[in-house]
Structure to design on (328 residues):
């Protein structure tokens, strides 16, 4: 896993190259919404894209992470099926429903049944390299290709892709500092329950971090966002424990009222745990800052796995679940 994380900057570069060569045909209907079907390591890329394009894309962009699709998916929809393996059960079942709607379909996958169907039926597809053993390590591929599709169909400019490119320089330049900070954060979290807070515009960073802690470090973790958690979860802070470890993902350009809320929150939460830490992003825009945090969080999850004596690649329980499902 550490070697896969190390390759993340190179993966982003490769993803941009793949995207530049992708051919996405125009739809014969007006597209007025986007729906993405994807789960796990493939689905989180769609969450990031939704945040990256929120202030530019003029049509709704929603993500589905289950077996069914919304009733609004129709012939005026751009429907993206994202699965690194191409064999994700939920995505394949929802893909069956998507095909009946007349939507503009684009498949993003390294192979499997999704690519087979796309080739057989003439759907647009972007095929990813198949030599990555862990789908959660392929975030760059899924995120970039979705941005590419939106750009080629005219829903966003090339600015997002340029920011991906500049993000590569950012994390490569700061690689050693990122690793050193990640080691400190991993030690801070070791033996404790991680609790992650950030603002609503960067929830994907918190989700990604939580998922990486789950899968790589084999540890439970939870997250929430500000300001929403100020209307509910904050009231739950009543029991003192030195087993909680709270991390705030912060940005210099967070909305001013949210910055104030974070400071007040910290003062409240410090009454119940001494373990509170701020992490500050680097970068000039949302995409650069998000990619910076992703890379930092990935390294944290790996160093934490080492402290816990866990195999960061192993996901035996998921394999067991799939095996049991296959019997039904």
């Amino acid at each position: 896993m550490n070697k896969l994380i190390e390759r993340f900057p190179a993966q982003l570069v490769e993803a941009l190259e793949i995207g530049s060569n992708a051919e996405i045909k125009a739809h014969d209907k007006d597209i007025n919404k986007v729906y993405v079907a994807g789960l796990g390591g493939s689905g989180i890329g769609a969450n990031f894209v939704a945040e990256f394009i929120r202030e530019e894309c003029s049509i709704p962009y929603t993500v589905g992470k289950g077996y069914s699709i919304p009733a609004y998916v129709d012939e005026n929809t751009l429907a993206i099926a994202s699965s690194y393996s191409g064999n994700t059960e939920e995505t394949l079942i929802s893909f069956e429903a998507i095909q009946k709607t007349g939507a503009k379909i684009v498949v993003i996958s390294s192979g499997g049944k999704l690519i087979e169907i796309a080739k057989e039926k003439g759907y647009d597809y972007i095929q990813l390299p198949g030599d990555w053993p862990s789908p959660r390590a392929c975030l760059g591929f899924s995120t970039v290709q979705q941005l590419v599709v939106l750009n080629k169909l005219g829903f966003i400019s090339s600015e997002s892709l340029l920011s991906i490119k500049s993000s590569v320089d950012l994390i490569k330049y700061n690689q050693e500092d990122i690793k050193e900070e990640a080691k400190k954060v991993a030690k801070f979290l070791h033996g404790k329950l991680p609790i992650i807070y950030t603002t609503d515009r960067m929830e994907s960073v918190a989700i990604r971090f939580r998922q990486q802690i789950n899968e790589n470090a084999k540890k439970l973790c939870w997250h929430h966002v500000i300001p929403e958690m100020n209307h509910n979860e904050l009231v739950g802070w009543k029991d003192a424990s030195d087993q909680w470890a709270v991390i705030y993902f912060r940005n210099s350009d967070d909305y001013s009222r949210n910055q104030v809320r974070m400071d007040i929150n910290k003062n409240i939460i410090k009454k119940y745990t001494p373990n509170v830490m701020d992490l500050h992003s680097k970068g000039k825009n949302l995409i650069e800052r998000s990619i910076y945090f992703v890379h930092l969080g990935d390294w944290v999850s790996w160093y934490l796995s080492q402290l816990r004596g866990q195999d960061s690649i192993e996901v035996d329980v998921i394999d067991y679940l799939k095996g049991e499902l296959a019997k039904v």
About this structure: The domain at 2-166 is CATH 3.40.50.10490 (Rossmann fold). Residues 104 and 235 are 45 Å apart (CA to CA). The beta strands are 33-37, 61-64, 77-82, 104-109, 124-127, 193-199, 222-226, 244-250, 276-280. The chain has two domains: 2-166, 174-307.
